[in-house]
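Progress against Task 2.4 (sequence-to-structure conversion) is shown through the following example record, which the project officer requested during the mid-term review.
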Amino acid sequence: MKYYADTSFILSLYIQQDSSKTATGFLRHHKISLLFTSLNRHEFRNAVRLCVFRKQITGKEASSVLNLLEEDLRTGVFLSANVPWSLAFNISEELSAKHTESMGVRGMDILHVAVAKSLDVSEFLTFDIRQKALAEKAGLKVRP
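Structure tokens generated for the chain above:
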């Protein structure tokens, strides 16, 4: 099985949030590795910096989190995945045309679901309610 996690899930593994216990428990119980793409890297790094802006963590803590992610990538905690971007953007446009007007889904959320579909994952991990609904409409099994 292939698992794709959006930023809400990955961030909760590194920065204490209400969902952190659920995320770590899910990974501990299922003993899985998550696919990790250039989209994950970009949005995760930006989300960590946004936490500094929001004063949820310090700049020093952000540096530590970013270094820990890089170490986890080097040691295989995540599985690096190359996105077939043309396919992902085509799927993204289809999802947008079908669901944005009725669901109010943001572009980045659509793109995460489209990337997961383009990588043929079986399970999508998120704590974002709209993204969860979109992923389900796209035929993905959503957890946790």
